[in-house]
Design brief:
- Belongs to the short-chain dehydrogenases/reductases (SDR) family.
- The protein is of the alpha/beta class.
- The chain has a single domain, classed as NAD(P)-binding Rossmann-like Domain (Rossmann fold), CATH 3.40.50.
- It has helices at 21-32, 44-53, 71-85, 108-136, 159-179, 195-198, 210-221, 232-242, 246-257; strands at residues 12-16, 36-40, 60-63, 88-93, 97-98, 139-144, 182-189, 227-230, 273-274.
- A 7-stranded parallel β-sheet has the order 3-2-1-4-6-7-8, with helices on both faces. The protein has a two-stranded antiparallel sheet with strand order 5-9.
- Helix 1 (21-32) links the parallel strand 1 and strand 2 (36-40).
- The longest helix has 29 residues, at 108-136.
- It starts with 11 loop residues before the first strand and ends with a strand.
- 42% of the residues are buried.
Length: 278
């Protein structure tokens, strides 16, 4: 069976976490390509501004408020898409937060919030989307993870764990979704040029703007690739590191991040921020 590649004439595109960063830029990109794009996030004002910004494009933006950590909210979003706007052709699950974690001051809430938003939030969107697409016999799903899911990085104990889980989940679901006519992809950006990335506690490679990331993702959605990753130099470097023995892996990451020079964190809790790859 040939892989399904969604086009605007097939139906609605749904993007979670579309109020800022890559999600917002991608919503505008797809609306510019002619899609009617349903956008979901907890911030109604930002979504309304996005809808206004897209008013001159060939497609349109539909605001559907909802909290991805609430499964009933996501069921209601999908019901609104199905009964008010038409078939769901393309779903892009992008919501996430980056909560820095330091072993010197571990906090259960850092992990619980990260898992609730980054992992369970995707599952809450995924279940109704797959059910809808299964009934239609076709569909395309893209899950936005991160290159941080390839291997452990400083401060990423919670964030990286959720991104690795998303990669594994997409890989595992692909076997069955292929037989159902539903195409699944995993999106693994490096670090986007957002405040959370610029404030990171160790040096980062070249940052990608949300607009550049949206271009890369939009192109990847039209390709036959399972994984869409960028920038290639950075993501390939992390994949190569992962193949090395642990002793060498830790030594090289330590050196690249200059982590041995980093002082222990000051006491106090770090607030959750949008994740660097969002």
């Amino acid at each position: 069976m040939r892989d399904f590649i969604a086009r605007p004439e097939h139906g609605i595109a749904w993007i979670s976490g579309a109020n800022s960063g890559i999600g917002r830029a991608l919503a505008l990109k797809l609306a510019g390509e002619g899609y009617k794009v349903a956008v979901t996030a907890g911030n109604h004002e930002e979504l309304a501004e996005l809808q206004t910004e897209a008013s001159g494009l060939s497609g349109s933006i539909v605001v559907l408020d909802g909290d991805v950590t609430d499964p009933e909210d996501m069921e209601h979003v999908l019901a609104s898409i199905e009964y008010e706007h038409g078939a769901l052709a393309l779903a892009i699950f992008n919501t996430g937060i980056y909560q820095p974690v330091h072993a010197e001051e571990l906090n259960r809430a850092d992990f619980e919030k990260s898992f609730a938003v980054n992992l369970c939030g995707v599952v809450n969107c995924l279940l109704p989307a797959i059910r809808h697409m299964k009934a239609k016999g076709q569909g395309q799903i893209a899950i936005v993870s991160s290159a941080a899911g390839y291997g452990g990085l400083p401060t990423s104990a919670a964030y990286g764990a959720t991104e690795a889980a998303l990669i594994n989940m997409a890989e595992s679901l692909k076997f069955d979704l292929d037989k159902m006519g539903i195409r699944i992809q995993i999106i693994c950006p490096g670090f986007a040029d957002m405040p959370a990335a610029r404030e990171n506690s160790f040096p980062l490679p070249t940052l990608v703007s949300p607009a550049e990331a949206a271009e890369q993702i939009a192109a990847g959605l039209k390709s036959n690739r399972f994984e869409v990753s960028f920038p290639k130099r950075f993501t390939y470097m992390l994949k190569l590191l992962r193949l090395m023995p642990y002793g060498l892996y830790f030594r090289l990451v330590n050196r690249s991040a200059r982590w041995w020079k980093h002082p222990p964190p000051s006491s106090g809790h770090h607030p959750a921020t949008p994740h660097p790859a969002e």
